[in-house]
Amino acid sequence: xxxxxxxxxxxxxxxxxxxxxxxxxxxxxxxxxxxxxxxxxxxxxxxxxxxxxxxxxxxxxxxxxxxxxxxxxxxxxxxxxxxxxxxxxxxxxxxxxxxxxxxxxxxxxxxxxxxxxxxxxxxxxxxxxxxxxxxxxxxxxxxxxxxxxxxxxxxxxxxxxxxxxxxxxxxxxxxxxxxxxxxxxxxxxxxxxxxxxxxxxxxxxxxxxxxxxxxxxxxxxxxxxxxxxxxxxxxxxxxxxxxxxxxxxxxxxxxxxxxxxxxxxxxxxxxxxxxxxxxxxxxxxxxxxxxxxxxxxxxxxxxxx
Length: 305
Description:
Elements: H1 2-17, H2 20-27, H3 31-45, E1 50-52, E2 57-59, H4 61-86, E3 93-99, H5 101-118, E4 122-128, H6 135-138, E5 142-146, E6 154-160, E7 164-168, H7 170-176, E8 190-193, E9 201-204, E10 209-211, E11 216-220, H8 223-231, E12 236-240, H9 241-250, E13 254-255, E14 260-261, E15 267-272, H10 279-294, H11 298-301
Parallel strand pairs: 3-4, 3-5, 8-11, 8-12
Antiparallel strand pairs: 1-2, 5-15, 6-15, 7-12, 7-13, 9-10, 9-14
Helix pairs in contact: 1-2, 1-3, 1-4, 2-3, 5-10
């Protein structure tokens, strides 16, 4: 059993490091031992688990499936050791998180720093990107998404309500006028973000829907870039209310056409399906839900139209 456990720990290190040499350093074994453990594991399972190239290693599809179970099992063992040695349960191991850039910098990374201080045996790696990534292929424990994007292979937990709204700088609105109707938007400069669908589809508080008869003047796949354009007075953007809450409070941005919104966009957490949710994951999800409920926007405190 001990040899099997060492093989699994070595396999996890190989995938994380993407090399046998890096894995050898992590597990404290020679390169020959690491190679032997991988070969033994593949032979015992009867499947190739790793693609080998001259530059790096990557998991096969079967390797990804096994990795999910291996990581969950090793984390559970480490948590059990923590319970026995210290008389209490502490999150241990590496917590991999991905989140959108703007939201991640404002809400996720500060919390991760706090969790790292509170739990010294917890290691954290975070990737901020506005690109939707594959949880399993990337080896992530948690993916934070805006808009409830679902993955059929993952579990999803809603953290807080949110909606998309139209905002612009006060200077832009004073210069170009404050639109009141859908038709008024036709003469305005619109800013597009990410894979935003054009034309915009808006919903009135009465339930009526409409599309915006104008095209994007500027567009970017980076939310911070679009936000900077809007603050600089270059146009109107549609953005998640939770992303612009601080700018609205500070008066840097004003909401325009408040009777209209761009649809619900709840903040959700996706994580690999599992019977036993690792402690490191549940602690992050609970903490995120707590801080978001406190700092929530108007759409988290009232029903959406």
